[in-house]
Design goal:
Layout lengths: L1 H15 L9 E5 L5 E8 L2 E8 L2 H13 L9 E7 L2 E7 L4 E2 H4 L5 H19 L17 H14 L7 H13 L9 E3 L8 E3 L5 E4 L6 E3 L2 H7 L8 H11 L7 H5 L1 H15 L5 H16 L1
Antiparallel strand pairs: 1-2, 2-3, 3-5, 4-5, 6-8, 7-10, 8-9
Helix pairs in contact: 4-8, 6-10, 10-11
């Protein structure tokens, strides 16, 4: 870790032409899946983020998406990006604020509802960026929703093939039952990690930033609603309706989620359970809750 930090200091000092000895570098986060490391630093009165990625694919994807969404107020501007000292990096402006997952309980329920409505509206702005024919950046990839979901479901199930949990086994059976009910819709630009931990808010409750675009691509927009269910915030019907109201200020809410919620909740539950190991026990428990609640509906 110390070697990485020293390399990052060297990189920043070269880019900004400052003495690395006076550079105050703060490690703030690393991916639970060890794909990236994030630091904050300041040059004079300006605050910055530097993200170091070990996945070339995710690094290139995030740069692409940040440039595509650069006109949205909640998307950070790229200051510099490249490869130095064998490090793939992106330097971005640092938004003020704290993550919503840590702050939301500090606000009144009325204010929370206003914030969730704004999240719905902001997600719609992402979904309405660009027009796409394939569920991928690559032309010629799968163009039919059910075909894509079948392929992705098999990947999720493959990771769970030796799982003995009864809820998980029942959930995997139901995916094949529910999937044919999906309506073929066109892909939209999808964040794919649109959860409270990637939302920044100010003390006033105003949304100040939406982070982490390394997974973003043309996909099924319902996946972003699923990401909101990684926590229990939308379990409350009032909060779901507020989120939906915000989204529908521009276009209609994704019809597949409204008609096939059980499919998406089981899909999300299986994903969470299979994605995380001992590092993410809370996420695995949430996954089981989503499956259980869907089986009881």
């Amino acid at each position: 870790m110390r070697d990485l930090t020293n390399k990052v200091k060297e990189l920043i000092s070269e880019i900004f032409q400052i003495d690395k000895e006076i550079l105050n570098l703060n490690f703030i986060d690393h991916s639970i899946l060890d794909r990236n490391y994030v630091y904050t630093f300041n040059i004079g009165l300006d605050d910055f983020i530097i993200k170091i990625s070990y996945s070339r694919e995710k690094w290139e994807n995030e740069i692409r998406v940040l440039k595509l969404l650069k006109d949205l107020y909640f998307v950070p501007n790229i200051i510099d990006e490249g490869i130095k000292y064998d490090l793939r990096y992106i330097i971005m402006e640092k938004f003020q604020g704290e993550t919503l997952i840590d702050e939301i309980d500090k606000f009144s329920k009325k204010k929370q509802l206003e914030m969730i409505e704004k999240l719905g509206e902001s997600l719609d702005l992402i979904h309405n960026t660009g027009e796409f024919n394939f569920f991928s950046w690559e032309e010629g990839k799968k163009a039919k929703l059910r075909e894509v979901r079948n392929y992705k479901d098999k990947n999720i199930i493959r990771k769970l093939q030796h799982c003995e949990n009864e809820l998980v086994k029942e959930g995997t059976k139901l995916l094949d039952k529910y999937r044919p009910k999906l309506i073929d819709t066109k892909p939209r630009l999808t964040h794919k990690d649109y959860s409270l931990r990637n939302i920044l808010v100010l003390e006033s409750g105003k949304l100040s930033g939406i982070l982490d675009y390394e997974h973003t691509e043309p996909e099924d927009p319902c996946l972003d609603i699923c990401s909101m269910y990684h926590t229990d915030i939308l379990d409350d019907e009032l909060f779901f309706e507020a989120f939906k109201l915000g989204y529908e200020k521009i276009v209609e809410f994704p019809i597949n989620f409204l008609l096939n919620k059980n499919y998406y909740m089981i899909n999300t539950g299986l994903y969470l359970y299979g994605r995380f190991s001992e590092k993410g026990l809370e996420a695995r428990d949430r996954g089981l809750d989503l499956i259980k609640n869907s089986l009881n509906d």
